[in-house]
Amino acid sequence: METKSTGAVPMPSYDDFEPFCTWRREEGSETLSVHLPEFKRDELKVQISNHGFLKISGERPTGAMKRSRFYREFKIPTDCNSNEIHAKFMGGILYISMPKYATSVTKEAQPAKVNQDSKPKTSQDQVTNKPAITEAIKKIESSKNVTNNEFQPQFSALRLKRFAQMAMGLSMVVAMGSVLNAYFVYKYCVPSS
Fold it and tell me: How far, in Å, CA of 83 to CA of 102, rounded?
């Protein structure tokens, strides 16, 4: 009896493995290091899903019909800016850097420049002015000889100003509540003559 050859290419066998991963958390970013010895850059894939997951996969040949592969998925930390994530493969290690969002640095922390023709911006404009925040962060990062103590008084003054604004707002809410309470007591609880 004769057997017919279908011409199908035999499927390779896969050796699935889980690579060694380490996290390094710093003040401005988090870095994931994935140890992948014997892999090449073109054998790796790094993707970011719309649902906030970082997907890392890779596949490489190990023999005639054998391949080694892995797949890892990590939740991107909520304080990290997913638009700024970048990867670098060096020395058998895949480094994925996840910068954190800028925190509470506004133009209020820096001296305001006022032109004679223009009026100074309001505090609401300063809080929502994202390019100014980014520029302030770049200036802070670029000053190499500045210590944290030099910025301490500015940030303390900023916190004090915000606290005063919150206290003023809270006192206004309490005052309005008291006025409304007095009105309803007078209107509905005082017997009419």
Answer: 13
CA distance 101 to 29: 9
- Among left, alpha and beta (phi > 0; psi -120 to 50; other), residue 154 is alpha
Based on the fold, state whether residues 136 and 178 are members of the same structural domain: no
Q: How many domains does the chain have?
A: 3
**Residue count (the chain):** 193
| Global confidence as pTM | 0.49
- 10 Å CB burial of residue 54 (0-12, 13-18, 19+) is buried
How open is the CA angle 95-101-102, to the nearest 5 degrees?
Answer: 125
C-alpha span between 76 and 167 (Å, rounded): 35
pLDDT digits (tens, 9 = 90+) for 140-170: 555 444 444 444 444 455 666 777 788 888 8
The answer to whether position 4 is within a domain reads no
